């Protein structure tokens, strides 16, 4: 009876009260496993965390002291709904590195670019609307689009990024079904999870198709400045300003703990973004915005991005060389920047089903299914090399190879015994 | 022609793309005026800003240094979707001051309590659902409920807070109309904008009605610890844990620039809040959470709250004595804590229509209409005394009296000339 009592307490007495959109919030199937992953003996290739230890803390201490000396009272007060004016001016310099020429008036600072995307989705998506996205696409974006009850239509994407022909096909298909396409979401540089970059010659083609079809583009670019050898092609936003909403972030070029990102949007959309932000948050944190503003004003932030580039390039090399050594027969993307490899498993292996075995072998990754809104992706997995040391990346991929090879052996045994 | 060209550019080419909920985002009618208010010659009684200059900056410097020394890498990294464990434990101590006994597992740290309320509204409100709220009610809450297309039903509220009898009447009325009531939203202590406190004997009555009618209560309590003479009655949440979601904030007892608040909710709602937060933001800022956690661990935060109490009490006294001196015939609430007076104007004066005249006289306030979701409130205005000095409060209220007296004289002249 005491047990029964306890169960009764755990029931949800408000089950009949939730809004329809609350039903869209599902616990990730792999979430439970990830609590195991934080154990030190597990090499996690799952994360997606930047290696913030490469950021010298004295740079931050200086930014903190300068900020409090110069504008301490403003830093701890409410600020404007659009974000700090000086920080927005500095962001213009950052975006200019990728060819973007914009007005400070059209920028909105957000609580991480995730919240920028959440607000955009809220502004545009009614139930059943279509979002076009790369296949695979960023798991956090898929979660948001689902939450706003949209249909996610993945567009075929290869080593040069999204295929313009496939984009046109997907648009035609959606139109034939009478569906309303609200926008195209894409991560053109070192995409999460694929690691691929949209090639320079495909960019104007994608743009032209969207312009002709009157489809808004959401260009999400958290990794663009983290290239290894040569800069990425100019941003889509550098070629058009009316049809593109551009999202940027300090999470990867500085640190994610501040939760500061930004959105550059055409004026009418920007106005609505500011109102949405005032409604949802009143204003973004003055404190974290001004810390970053001081850092940009006084620290060698370009040199720091170079440092990050060096760290991630070394880790990418470690990951690719371990793949070559331990899993030479598997196809993987070869990123020119960013955090991720996208690995194709032998046919018949399901990366989600295999994950518990991998965690038992003390290595973790993210199964491909996380990056598709349509239930596919079983044959792929994402390796994130940004956080573990090169040595641990090697150990992790060796363990991964053990798991995959065991699976392959088992499959062959069964298939032989079936003959 | 160049002008026409410019107008064309300003048109919104995405007008046909927005979601239905985007229509609910309206620019505040008084917003344009408020840009004028920031001029130094204007005494603003409009704001709602805490007086953060009363917080010694060395307390923050110590918190920053301790944080970076002890957990610098965690502070700038992504954190969990529920918020920092240690901060959540410390929040329990804070809530215990108002009689709340809770588990750290049921707390979610949010980006200000505004975002907690936004997420709750998103979890519960479908179009046309009813939210019960005090009349008047917090402008930021009204904005959120409107954004989720809810109907806001104001419940009669007097100097002892919301009337239980009126609550029952409102419930009966909504039920008779076949409407679905999703929750009761209230600010029981030194409410924004009325300044009134829900009396101790009404609290169990409100609770009992909601329990019987199966209506969830959202208890929003940013001001409770800022009492002037004696502590507030125990929180509603101290008397019930299944039917109440409790919102708290560091914006008024520490500083709003951090954007840190919290939500205490029954387990099933808490689970959904964490998922909603992960979807919207990934996680709240580790940096600002850990700053506050260090501050709570090492600074005399209770002494600091006493300091704030002293500041606000002095300003409330200045405001009431200026009201007594310059506007002796007007009815005003007499708050026992918090930031606000609620003033009833002579019949026939419209506070929104009068605002431009007041700004011309170099004083600003917030018109009563901002605090009603039903278009009423013209006869009231909110005076916020938290930010200006006592001397400026006196100057501001004197100017306000000039404007009101001129209006009254005009009315009398017209009414005499009409005889």
Q: What attributes does this structure have?
A:
homodimer, 419 residues, alpha/beta, Aspartate Aminotransferase, domain 1, Aspartate Aminotransferase, domain 2, 2 domains, eight-stranded mixed β-sheet, four-stranded antiparallel β-sheet, 14 strands, disordered N terminus
Question: What does the model show?
Answer:
Two copies of one chain form a homodimer. With 419 residues, chain A is α/β, with parallel strands linked by helices. Chain A contains 13 helices and 14 strands. Mean pLDDT of chain A is 94; it is low at 1-9. An eight-stranded mixed sheet of chain A has the order 2-9-8-7-6-3-4-5, with helices on both faces. In chain A, helix 7 packs parallel to helix 8 (202-213) and helix 11 (301-326) runs parallel beside helix 13. The first copy, chain A, has two domains: 25-48 and 303-418, Alpha-Beta Complex (Aspartate Aminotransferase, domain 1); 79-298, Type I PLP-dependent aspartate aminotransferase-like (Major domain) (Aspartate Aminotransferase, domain 2), CATH 3.40.640. In chain A, 45% of the residues lie in helices and 14% in strands.
Beta content of chain A comes to: 5-15%
CATH class of the largest domain in chain A: Alpha Beta
Summed over residues and divided by their number, the pLDDT of chain A gives a mean of: 94
| Structural class based on helices, strands and sheet pairing of chain A | alpha/beta
Give the biggest sheet of chain A. Answer: 8 strands, mixed
What order do the SSEs of chain A take from the amino end to the carboxyl end, as H and E? HHEHHEHEHEEHEHEEEHHHEEHEEEH
Ranges of chain A with pLDDT <50 over ≥5 residues?
Answer: 1-9
């Amino acid at each position: 009876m005491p047990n029964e009592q306890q169960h009764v307490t755990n029931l949800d007495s408000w089950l009949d009260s939730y809004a329809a959109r609350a039903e869209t919030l599902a616990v990730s199937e792999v979430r439970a496993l990830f609590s195991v992953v934080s154990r030190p003996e597990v090499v996690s290739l799952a994360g997606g965390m930047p290696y913030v230890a490469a950021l010298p803390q004295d740079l931050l201490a200086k930014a903190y002291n300068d900020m409090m000396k110069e504008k301490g009272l403003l830093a701890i007060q409410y600020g404007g709904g659009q974000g700090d004016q000086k920080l927005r001016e500095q962001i213009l310099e950052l975006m200019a590195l990728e060819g973007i020429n914009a007005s400070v008036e059209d920028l909105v600072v957000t609580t991480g670019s995730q919240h920028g995307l959440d607000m955009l989705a809220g502004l545009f998506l009614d139930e059943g609307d279509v979002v076009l996205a790369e296949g695979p696409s960023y798991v956090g974006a898929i979660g948001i689009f689902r939450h706003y009850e949209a249909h996610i239509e993945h567009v075929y994407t290869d080593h040069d990024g999204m295929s313009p022909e496939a984009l046109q096909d997907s648009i035609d298909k959606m139109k034939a079904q009478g569906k309303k396409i609200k926008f195209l979401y894409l991560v053109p540089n070192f995409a999460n999870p694929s690691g691929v970059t949209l090639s320079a010659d495909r960019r104007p083609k994608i743009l032209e198709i969207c312009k002709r079809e009157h489809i808004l583009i959401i260009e999400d670019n958290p990794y663009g400045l983290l290239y290894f050898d040569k800069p990425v092609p100019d941003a889509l936003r550098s070629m058009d300003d009316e049809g593109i909403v551009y999202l940027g972030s300090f999470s990867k070029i500085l640190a994610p703990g501040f939760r500061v990102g930004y959105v550059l949007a055409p004026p009418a959309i920007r106005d609505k973004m500011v109102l949405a932000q005032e409604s949802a948050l009143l204003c973004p944190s003055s404190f974290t915005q001004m810390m970053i503003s001081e850092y940009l004003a006084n620290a060698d932030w370009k040199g720091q991005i170079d440092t990050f580039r060096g760290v991630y390039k070394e880790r990418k090399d470690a990951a690719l060389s371990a793949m070559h050594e331990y899993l030479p027969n598997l196809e993987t993307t070869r990123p020119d920047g960013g955090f991720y490899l996208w690995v194709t498993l032998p046919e018949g292996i399901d990366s989600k089903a295999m994950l518990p075995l991998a965690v038992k072998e003390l290595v973790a990754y993210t199964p491909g299914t996380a990056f598709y809104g349509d239930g596919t992706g079983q044959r792929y997995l994402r390796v994130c090399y940004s956080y573990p040391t090169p040595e641990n990346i090697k150990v992790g991929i060796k363990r991964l190879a053990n798991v995959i090879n065991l699976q392959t052996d088992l499959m062959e045994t069964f298939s032989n015994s079936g003959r």
